[in-house]
């Protein structure tokens, strides 16, 4: 419900983040991150409130502050797109690093097994011979 009211405010002030900015239920649902039918069937009171606010809203004259808000919203949208691209790149790098760590763990395990085997072989070759068997009588 909070997401819907926040989306209403953003649409009514002309600063949408995720929708086309039109004053429609479709845009409101997109801005709130919901499906349209969820808004029109489950949250009918909020839908009606939105329509009432849109109807009561006097058309705002085109001013520099209105353009400034749209410019800021466009800049924020570009920043959001950039940050999402960076996030996706970091996720890809994280997956690659996880694979590398996995391969290194397997190699470490193999090297430890080889090291243990070599130590056993070395111990067998350098063992002190049993001199009691070689006794000459």
Describe this structure in words.
The chain is mainly α. Helix content is 74%, strand content 0%. The protein has helices at residues 2-13, 25-32, 36-41, 44-56, 64-125. The longest helix is centred in the C-terminal third of the chain and has 62 residues, at 64-125. The mean pLDDT is 84.
Task: Give a quick precis of the structure.
This protein is an all-alpha fold and 137 residues long.
Average pLDDT rating: 84
Question: How much helicity do the residues have?
Answer: over 70%
End-to-end separation in angstroms reads 101 Å
Structural class: mainly alpha
What percentage of amino acids are in beta strands?
under 5%
Count of strand segments: 0
Number of helices: 5
Sequence-ordered SSE layout with sheet pairings:
Layout: H1 2-13, H2 25-32, H3 36-41, H4 44-56, H5 64-125
Task: Summarize this structure as a short list of keywords or feature phrases.
74% helix; mainly alpha; 0% strand; 5 helices; single chain; rod-shaped; 137 residues
